[in-house]
């Protein structure tokens, strides 16, 4: 059973675990489709030149009349590329590099480029699906739910829970996928509601955190004299620990990275371990992996803090048992 706040997870998982036949014919799309789809998004013109919207709306009109998780993947790729959005940044961000990309496209034969890119992305999808199928995955029953507010949903009885919560404020997941959500047909009201559920920008019940490490670092955050960061810190741990208090499982695996708030690196896994141990969980092991390959682009200066951008060096997998 997979839960995620992002509703697009249902499309992504359906495409990634495709079991049927797959070939290029399944991706044929009408670039001259008569019915257009315009996202219900007040900032559409801010993120896309009108020229691109004219063609993209035709492609998405075809998609919404012929929905397919496989078809959505290459469409989402070209839609973001033909926008002012930075391609490899952990939030929707209008960068100088992206503006230059758009200007180059507009001064070229961009319609042909869009078609070529679409079919290159199709080839990638077909290759990945065939690679997955070649591994002969076991037939299993599963449930995928997107748009889930984990704090308002009752966790089921399971053997194990494995989760990779946000690393404090390191990535804003809903904001990252805003552009894709609107083209997939979600409204501004829905996206706003999803943002309100996102950790650590949500409003969880207050939790009394157990353990010295949490309070040691709470004092360090308070010394930053930034109420926004203080709220993120307290809300983050309240959200996670409230959810873990309701988990019905024998084993718990938590992927976390020790990210920085300003110049203070927060030992998230140690804080979670101390609290969980105090409420009856036993620490089995913490696996530590140095992050070598990164999908997200490195920035010399963090645009939010104006400080030197320092990547999270390692990822920790905290294993707790009952």
Automatic annotation (TrEMBL):
Keywords: Methyltransferase, Restriction system, S-adenosyl-L-methionine, Transferase
GO BP annotation list: DNA restriction-modification system; methylation
Transferase listed as a keyword: yes
InterPro entries on file: MeTrfase_CN4_CS
GO molecular function: DNA binding; site-specific DNA-methyltransferase (cytosine-N4-specific) activity
Keyword Methyltransferase assigned: yes
Name recorded for this polypeptide: Uncharacterized protein
């Amino acid at each position: 059973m997979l839960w995620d706040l992002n509703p697009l997870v249902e499309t992504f998982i359906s495409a990634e675990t495709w079991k049927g036949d797959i070939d290029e014919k399944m991706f044929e799309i009408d670039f001259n489709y008569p019915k257009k789809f315009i996202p219900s998004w007040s900032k559409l013109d801010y993120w896309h030149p009108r020229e691109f919207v004219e063609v993209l709306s035709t492609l998405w009109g075809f998609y919404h009349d012929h929905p397919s998780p496989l078809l959505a993947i290459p469409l989402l790729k070209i839609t973001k590329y033909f926008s002012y959005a930075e391609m490899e940044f952990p939030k929707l961000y209008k960068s100088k590099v992206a503006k230059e990309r758009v200007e180059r496209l507009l001064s070229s034969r961009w319609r042909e480029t869009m078609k070529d890119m679409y079919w290159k992305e199709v080839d990638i999808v077909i290759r990945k699906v065939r690679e997955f199928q070649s591994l002969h995955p076991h037939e299993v029953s599963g449930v995928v739910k997107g748009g889930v507010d984990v704090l308002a949903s009752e966790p089921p009885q399971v053997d194990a829970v494995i989760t990779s919560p946000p690393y404090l404020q390191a990535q804003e997941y809903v904001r990252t996928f805003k552009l894709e959500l609107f083209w997939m047909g979600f409204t501004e009201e829905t996206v706003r509601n999803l943002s309100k559920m996102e950790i650590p920008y949500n409003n969880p019940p207050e939790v009394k955190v157990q353990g010295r490490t949490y309070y040691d670092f709470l004092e360090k955050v308070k010394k930053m004299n930034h109420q926004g960061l203080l709220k993120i810190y307290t809300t983050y741990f309240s959200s996670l620990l409230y959810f873990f208090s309701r988990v019905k499982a024998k084993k718990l695996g938590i992927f976390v990275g020790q990210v920085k708030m300003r110049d203070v690196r927060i030992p998230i896994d140690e804080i979670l371990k101390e609290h969980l141990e105090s409420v009856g969980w036993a620490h089995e092991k913490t696996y530590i992996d140095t992050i070598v390959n990164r999908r997200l682009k490195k920035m010399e200066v963090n645009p939010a803090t104006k400080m030197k951008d320092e990547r999270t060096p390692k990822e920790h997998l905290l294993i707790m048992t009952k």
